[in-house]
Amino acid sequence: MTDVLNVEIGALAGGSANLPQYEGTAVLIVNVASKCGLTPQYSGLEKLQERFAGQGFTVLGVPCNQFLGQEPGTAEEIAEFCSATYGVTFPLTEKVEVNGADRHPLYQRLVGVADAQGHSGDIRWNFEKFLIGKDGRIVARFSPQTEPESAEVVSAIEAQLS
């Protein structure tokens, strides 16, 4: 699947996140939430950002409140939480729906790809991850429980940067 990044999505702070700006960049897209048992993954995501940003990579956090209301905050509250609690420097989009009738067009394009265990379709929980290659293709999908700094994720990112 190509052209994943040719989708409009608002930025958390207003305006447009302008996904086409990431053309030529490897992007790890992650649906995030502030009040989830997996929320500490923000630390690992930020470490990936710091480690690989200078090599043509970014994490893109996509807040979503569809899983037990675990992202209830306003844009300002989400931004403050991410910055103050986890030192997040990677970009965050507006809060969107990743499943159901109102699924954001970005996720309409992502969910058809299977992870290593063969799961495709609906997002299972917060912190499901999709790696987009520099060519705009979806190259990997990782389960919510897969830690950002796992060998599986890091090697997939490195393969896109080499």
UniProtKB/TrEMBL annotation:
Q: Which GO terms describe its biological process?
A: cellular response to oxidative stress
Q: Tell me the leader sequence span.
A: none
The record's similarity note reads: Belongs to the glutathione peroxidase family.
Query: Does the keyword tRNA processing belong to this entry?
Result: no
SUPFAM superfamilies documented for this protein: Thioredoxin-like
Supply the InterPro entries for this chain.
Glutathione_peroxidase, Thioredoxin-like_sf
Which species is this record about? Streptomyces broussonetiae
Look up keyword Oxidoreductase and say if it applies. yes
Q: State the name under which the record lists this protein.
A: Glutathione peroxidase
Sorted alphabetically, the keyword list is: Oxidoreductase, Peroxidase
Which residues constitute the catalytic centre?
C36
One Pfam family recorded for the sequence: GSHPx
Q: Name one GO molecular function term.
A: peroxidase activity
What PROSITE patterns does this protein map onto?
GLUTATHIONE_PEROXID_3 (PS51355)
